[in-house]
Amino acid sequence: MDVESKVIEIVTREQHLPPGTVKRNSTFTELGIDSLDGVNILFALEEEFKIDIPDAVAQNMKSVAQVVDGLTRVLEGKDISDLVAIAKSGSPAASH
Q1: The domain containing residue 80 runs over which residues?
Q2: Cα(88)–Cα(85) distance, rounded to whole angstroms?
Q3: Is 34 exposed, middle or buried (0-12, 13-18, 19+ CB in 10 A)?
Q4: Based on the structure, what is the number of domains in the chain?
Q5: Alpha carbon distance 53, 18 (integer Å)
Q6: For residue range 16-25, what is the model confidence (pLDDT) as tens digits?
Q7: Residue 63, SS3?
Q8: What is the CATH number of the domain that holds 78?
Q9: pLDDT tens, 24-65?
Q10: Helices within the chain (DSSP H only)
Q11: The model scores a pTM over 0.85
Q12: Which residue in 36, 46, 47, 72 has its CB near the most CB atoms, within 10 A?
């Protein structure tokens, strides 16, 4: 299963949403995800992918697309320090 599908599966499961509700372009606001929900999703993602997501990055992620792009970069061993600024600006994550 690819990163995007797994992220969507985890968000759907953690939020108890009907299948098909979560899309790549879904924002956390649209999905009703608050900061506590975000922490639970973060823990589930870290456990699933066996990684640590830096707090500064995680706190500023506001959409499924940002999470997918960030996780993909982490899993590929790429630098993600720029994702903090990108997440704060609300723009999609930079291309790989």
Answers
A1: 3-89
A2: 5
A3: exposed
A4: 1
A5: 26
A6: 999 999 999 9
A7: strand
A8: 1.10.1200.10
A9: 999 999 999 998 999 999 999 999 999 888 787 788 889 999
A10: 3-15, 35-49, 55-58, 64-75, 82-89
A11: no
A12: 72
